[in-house]
Design brief:
Blueprint: H1 4-10, H2 14-18, E1 21-25, H3 29-40, E2 45-49, H4 74-85, E3 90-94, H5 103-106, E4 113-116, H6 121-134, E5 137-141, E6 153-157, H7 165-173, E7 184-188, H8 205-227
Parallel strand pairs: 1-2, 1-4, 2-3, 4-5, 5-7
Antiparallel strand pairs: 6-7
Helix pairs in contact: 3-4, 3-8
Length: 228
């Protein structure tokens, strides 16, 4: 059995993992790794949203990026990868840019978790507000660019972040809703003082962000078991 090693850790709780419905918004460096980790956990219902195609500049960090996948829609490549890992998984792929116009197309499923891995501020604001309104657990990724030190990756509430410019913008824009400021986020306290038009990134930190996000879901299920 492909998930027997995880079952050793979780016992019957692996059924809760299988029954999860998870939405991953943005399937680049962070979201791609998060989705693959969910597939390897045995999650049987994964929705993925991204309007982009794989480009040559993605190869240095994104799990979906190969010379053989260039110019393909990222959600199509990722769907194939997920099904190759877990053929039982229902993969709902949405090749859209997430905004007010596409919001209702995305929320046709009763998600247990949302992993916000996109890098557009307005989309992040919208998905966070939507998750709070619908009482869906959400974990949001902050900026993974210009980071080198994995030991500085942290989990906190959005309101408690520091040294992260994206988190600072979100805190300000979402200040009208205190519940939005309580969501869990992955961020790095590493600072970068340079100024570049194009965000530099590597193969380590974005992928670790994604794995960290998936691990929070796994450990939620695990801690739920311990409380029982």
């Amino acid at each position: 059995m492909e998930f027997s090693r995880l079952e050793i850790l979780l016992g019957n709780k692996i059924d809760e993992i299988r029954n999860l419905k998870v939405l991953v918004l943005g399937v680049g460096g962070v979201g791609g790794s998060a989705a693959i980790a969910l597939a390897r956990m045995g999650v049987n219902n994964i929705s993925i949203i991204d309007h982009d195609k794989v480009t040559i500049t993605n190869i240095n960090r994104q799990v979906i990026a190969f010379h053989s996948t260039l110019d393909r829609l990222k959600v199509d490549v990722l769907k194939d990868m997920i099904l190759d890992i877990n053929p039982s998984c229902k993969v709902n792929s949405y090749p859209y840019f997430y905004n007010e116009e596409t919001n209702d197309l995305i929320f046709n499923n009763n998600y247990d978790y949302i992993l916000d891995c996109c890098d557009t501020v307005k989309s992040k604001e919208l998905i966070i507000r939507e998750a709070i309104k619908r009482n869906i657990k959400i974990i949001s990724s902050m900026g993974a660019g210009f980071k080198f030190d994995p030991s500085l990756i942290k989990v906190s509430k959005l309101k408690d972040t520091n040294y992260d410019k994206l988190a600072k913008i979100l805190r300000y824009n979402l200040r009208d809703n205190p519940e939005c400021l309580k969501i869990r986020v992955i961020y790095s306290s590493e600072t970068y003082e340079g100024k570049r038009e194009v965000i530099g990134s590597n193969s380590i930190i974005p992928n670790m962000f994604g794995l960290y996000m998936a691990s929070l879901i796994l450990n939620d299920i695990r801690s739920r078991d311990e409380k029982n």
